[in-house]
Write a structure and sequence with these properties.
With 307 residues, this protein is an alpha/beta fold. The protein has two domains: 33-58 and 179-291, 3-Layer(aba) Sandwich (Rossmann fold); 64-165, Rossmann fold, CATH 3.40.50. The protein has helices at residues 64-78, 93-105, 119-127, 148-159, 173-188, 239-253, 259-272, 291-298; strands at 36-38, 48-54, 85-89, 109-114, 131-135, 164-165, 201-205, 233-237, 277-283. The strands form three sheets. A four-stranded parallel sheet has the order 5-4-3-6, with helices on both faces. A three-stranded mixed sheet has the order 1-2-9, covered by helices on one side.
């Protein structure tokens, strides 16, 4: 450590110098955006230019850092946190961000999470002090067989409303506000408000998929905050091409991304074969939380002596 003087001094926050008061100031905003990186090898030969917005540059590792910050700030402003513990259903990333923020605030957090979520995410949640309730699918409603974690979280609030407060990412408009006020402007203002000709392409996995963080809305309840008017097209992606593209992004463009990014880029590349222009895809998180998941995909590939 180098000391400039013997006097006690405080460094002022300065984003230009990457100097921050605390880790929350690292969460992306138009003044401190996550990177946009051009895809080269995987997009070679396309008429379109493809870019990825690397949301894993957020301090807790995903696009859900933005969501979690807005959810908690909104609850604080409305007085909904007073004297209460937090409970939230999650497939991992929102929970991790909430757990980090809860730790900073000295709040307890209980998360309900699908049993099949990668172990790395569950471990990170526990390291951050969250109480983790892994939820088997057979605990959920028959009509939405992937929503057990959501139903369990709601049951805690319903049973003890004086004890628990739920940010409720799937129904809370603060989730939308996070992207309207930060993600959108970082890409190009407010997208359709800037140019009504912009097209919004939604990526959805197939039924029975194994793509962490993505939902097929035939298997899950449609989130209350989803506005279908901003979606021009829905592209369904199978697991196999999503996994293949994830490996290509690792090996050809050096991007250590999660499997949902593979699904998004696969759809973007297919779209780019048919359309000219500029496309931006969201890379929700990195591949660092998916080691056990990737080990299943790779199998014996690259092992000496394997065929």
């Amino acid at each position: 450590m180098t000391l400039a003087s013997t006097k006690k001094e405080s460094l002022r926050e300065d984003q230009a110098l990457r100097r921050y008061r605390n880790v929350l100031s690292l969460i992306a905003s138009p003044r401190n955006p996550t990177p946009l990186v051009r895809l080269n090898k995987v997009a070679e030969g396309l008429s379109s230019e493809l870019y990825l917005k690397l949301e894993w540059f957020n301090p807790f590792g995903s696009i859900k850092d933005r969501t979690a910050l807005y959810l908690i700030r909104g609850m604080q402003d409305r007085g909904e946190l007073d004297g209460k513990e937090l409970v939230e259903p999650t497939s991992g990333n929102t929970g991790i961000a909430l757990a980090a923020i809860a730790a900073l605030l000295g709040r307890k957090l209980k998360v309900t999470i699908p049993d099949g979520v990668p172990e790395e995410k569950k471990l990170l949640l526990r390291m951050l002090g969250a109480e983790v309730w892994a939820t088997p699918d057979d605990l959920c409603p028959i009509d939405h067989p992937k929503d057990g974690a959501i139903a369990l979280a709601h049951s805690f609030v319903k049973t003890e409303p004086e004890r628990y407060a739920m940010p409720n990412q799937y129904a809370n408009p603060d989730n939308v506000a996070a992207h309207y006020e930060t993600t959108g402007p970082e890409i190009w203002k407010y997208l359709k408000e800037k140019d009504p000709g912009d097209r919004g392409i939604a990526i959805e996995p197939q039924t029975g998929h194994r793509l962490p963080g993505l939902k097929n809305l035939q298997e899950a309840k449609t989130p209350e905050i989803l506005d279908p008017k901003v979606i021009d097209e829905v592209v369904r992606v199978d697991d196999k091409p999503a996994y293949a593209m994830t490996k290509r992004l690792f090996r050809e463009d050096g991007l250590i991304v999660g499997p949902s990014t593979g699904a998004i880029v696969h759809a973007a590349v297919e779209y780019g074969r048919k359309h000219e222009g500029l496309a931006v895809g969201i890379s929700p998180d990195s591949g660092f939380k998916y080691a056990t998941f990737f080990s299943e995909i790779l199998g014996n590939e690259g092992t000496p002596g394997s065929e």
